[in-house]
């Protein structure tokens, strides 16, 4: 039997990243899965592709890998709570989403809206309040950045028009 770390490394070396992550998660080694996903994400961002379509598919791969990890973490939190048999544990107020939302901090490709569908239905918006607020703040910063870029582009276009005229 091949040790799981060796198997995961071998699969990753062969380019079978999804299988590598699945093998790590099969033995509930979330840290190993995260390590592999980080390696893939780093590799994909440092590789300079001249093809936009290839970059997009590489980003999709990294996002899929992180989503697998997030699903696994959320499922394990839910299964741990529901397998316990203690009805008190299954109450929405006792559901801790911090492990799942920590993944959002570790992976910039995932957003709260990517992982929301995998949480149990009985959770309320209160459980996600801080993550949603953070997501909205990030969107606001991105919008402000785009607004600044548009302003610079408009000013540059105006300057070029004046030089031509």
From TrEMBL:
Gene Ontology cellular component annotations, sorted alphabetically: HOPS complex; late endosome membrane
Record key words, sorted: Coiled coil, Metal-binding, Zinc, Zinc-finger
UniProt record, GO biological process: endosome organization; endosome to lysosome transport; lysosome organization; organelle fusion; vesicle docking involved in exocytosis
MF terms (GO), sorted A to Z: protein-macromolecule adaptor activity; zinc ion binding
Organism superkingdom: Eukaryota
Chain segments annotated as transmembrane: none
Annotated membrane topology: Peripheral membrane protein
Protein name: Uncharacterized protein
Protein source organism: Euroglyphus maynei
């Amino acid at each position: 039997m091949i040790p799981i770390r060796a198997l995961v490394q071998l699969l990753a070396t062969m380019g079978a990243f999804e299988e590598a992550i699945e093998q790590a998660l099969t033995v509930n080694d979330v840290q190993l899965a995260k390590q592999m996903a980080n390696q893939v994400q780093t590799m994909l961002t440092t590789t300079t592709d001249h093809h936009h379509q290839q970059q997009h598919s590489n980003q999709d791969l990294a996002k899929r890998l992180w989503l697998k990890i997030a699903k696994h973490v959320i499922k394990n939190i839910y299964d741990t709570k529901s397998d316990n048999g203690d009805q008190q544990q299954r109450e929405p107020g006792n559901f801790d989403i911090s492990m799942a939302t920590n993944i959002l901090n570790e992976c910039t490709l995932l957003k709260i809206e990517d992982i929301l569908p995998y949480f149990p239905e009985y959770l309320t918006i209160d459980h996600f309040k801080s993550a949603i607020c953070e997501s909205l703040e990030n969107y606001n910063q991105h919008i402000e950045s785009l607004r600044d870029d548009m302003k610079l582009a408009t000013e540059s276009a105006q300057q070029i028009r004046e030089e031509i005229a």
